[in-house]
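Deliverable D4.2, example record:
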Amino acid sequence: MTLSKLAQLANVSVSVVSKAFSGREDVSDAMREHVFAVAREHGCFQQFYHARYDKPVIAVIIPEAISKYYIHIIEALKRGMEANGYTMLLSISNFDNTLKNELVRYYTEHSKVDGLVLIDASFDKAIKCDTVLVSVLGSKRQIQYGSEIYLEKSYGINDALEHLMAKGHRRIAFVGEAYTVPKQKKFEACCSELGLAVDACLMYTSLHRFEEAGRDGVRKLFSGDFPPPSAIFGAYGYITQGILSELEVMGLRVPEDVSVISIDNDPYPLHGVLDVACIPSDIELLCIKTIEILCQKIGKRSPNLPIVQLELKSRFYEGNTIKDIDPA
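Output generated by the structure prediction step:
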């Protein structure tokens, strides 16, 4: 289809067709809609319509939408983007780096969004783009382009370990799952830095996820031939919920019998009326900083270089049931 042919079909001049699709104000709304209707009828609307969307579009890529942790991130980002007049698009990578890289390429090379936010994604250093890029991570990683915001949990883990060690705890366990292995490695590194021996029998990676991973971990830790732990770290809130549930089934009290620390306090409250010590996820702060960087870069049309790395320090919070109880 050519402009000339479309003009004939709409019974208008080529100039009117051209002005209608280019958004010129000297074409009435009624005439513009007439031209568009004829174009749609003959299947050539997209061929000629290239007007830019009137709001900045930000694409967000998250690993999954099952966990409330990621749902809360989406909600916080959406509030911030709407407040600044942005439109948010959402894609899910399913923890698949190949799919994630395909989505990045689509958004930056084909749909050409104004900004791209990656949540908890390993970053492909080969990607270079002009799109404003913000990578929001659970820990520091090196990226080649764009801005990186990371929540450094080592501070909170160290605080929690020192808190427990001061009360005499030495058998401190970690319960996680396949996607939390980096947290376990960070936990082990913090233990080593504080001179606390890392016992492989107390480091448990469940084949399950969410609450079942926590329940599975407790059953494993308290059913072996080795002495059970006096304190347990849950890799995230759902796992901690499972830990608390299974300890309750076994008749063990928190914190009188076993102290429990949650790395991330989402979802909250973790388990009925029980509270545990936690290392906050600080979702609101992460999202506020993300929106600030997007506004700064999109507003100034600044390039992705130099790299911006912003470290947020997550600190240990003592829940209201933590008492000065010596480990058994």
